[in-house]
């Protein structure tokens, strides 16, 4: 029997759509607040119905998750490849470009706007903290693999918690100490990179 209808979306295309939704949601949240934004409006901004939108996300607040989780897998790979005696910053070379740009991750300006909103929007704060909560065991598993320790060993779990907290604080420091809308994208990238570099330097002291 010949199948009809649209072919299923590839995993890569679904990820692209989720990121498009996240960008649109942040833009609307910044302009009119979370309470003043509806699922219909987010859907319209990306050319889909609210019914289709809810197939990708369970709530309007969760629409921003792709902007918060984009770098987790990349960080995990960096940790697994981190060589003994190698500076932590060097291990993150694939995340921190030599020219100061943050690559393989979310857009600094959008993330800054989103994290600034977490100060006054409890729903977004919950999504932000949940993203980091889910990242921690991923980091712990990577650190355990690097050290040849069991996945359930306490030591990589503690190191992962330290690194996770350092990265969260770095992004929050960037978001809460930058001017916000209208910032030059290149400046935003440079400032976020500087915050992450500082956080990695501090975290490395306890991760050796």
Automatic annotation (TrEMBL):
The keyword Transmembrane helix does not apply. PROSITE patterns: HTH_TETR_2. It holds the Pfam family TetR_C_14. SUPFAM superfamilies: Homeodomain-like (SSF46689). InterPro entries: Homeodomain-like_sf, HTH-type_TetR-like_transc_reg, HTH_TetR, MftR_C. The keyword Metal-binding does not apply. Keywords: DNA-binding, Transcription, Transcription regulation. Residues 15-75 form the HTH tetR-type domain. Residues 38-57 bind DNA. PANTHER family: HTH-TYPE TRANSCRIPTIONAL REGULATOR BETI, HTH-TYPE TRANSCRIPTIONAL REGULATOR RUTR. This is TetR/AcrR family transcriptional regulator. It comes from Streptomyces broussonetiae. The lineage of its organism: Bacteria, Bacillati, Actinomycetota, Actinomycetes, Kitasatosporales.
């Amino acid at each position: 029997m010949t199948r009809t209808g649209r072919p299923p979306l590839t995993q890569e295309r679904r990820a692209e759509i989720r990121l498009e939704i996240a960008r649109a949601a942040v833009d609307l949240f910044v302009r009119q607040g979370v309470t003043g934004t509806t699922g219909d409006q987010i859907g319209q901004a990306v050319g889909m119905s609210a019914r289709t939108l809810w197939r990708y996300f369970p709530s309007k607040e969760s629409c921003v998750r792709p902007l918060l989780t984009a770098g987790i897998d990349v960080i995990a790979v960096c940790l697994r490849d981190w060589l003994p005696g190698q500076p932590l910053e060097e291990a993150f070379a694939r995340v921190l470009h030599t020219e100061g740009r943050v690559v393989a991750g979310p857009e600094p300006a959008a993330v800054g706007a989103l994290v600034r909103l977490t100060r006054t929007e409890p729903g977004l704060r919950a999504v932000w903290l949940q993203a980091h909560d889910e990242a921690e065991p991923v980091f712990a598993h990577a650190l355990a693999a690097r050290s040849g320790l069991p996945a359930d060993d306490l030591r990589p779990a503690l190191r992962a918690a330290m690194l996770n907290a350092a990265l969260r604080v770095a992004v929050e420091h960037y978001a809460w100490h930058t001017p916000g809308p209208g910032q030059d994208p290149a400046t935003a990238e440079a400032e976020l990179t500087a915050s992450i570099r500082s956080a990695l330097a501090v975290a490395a002291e306890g991760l050796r």
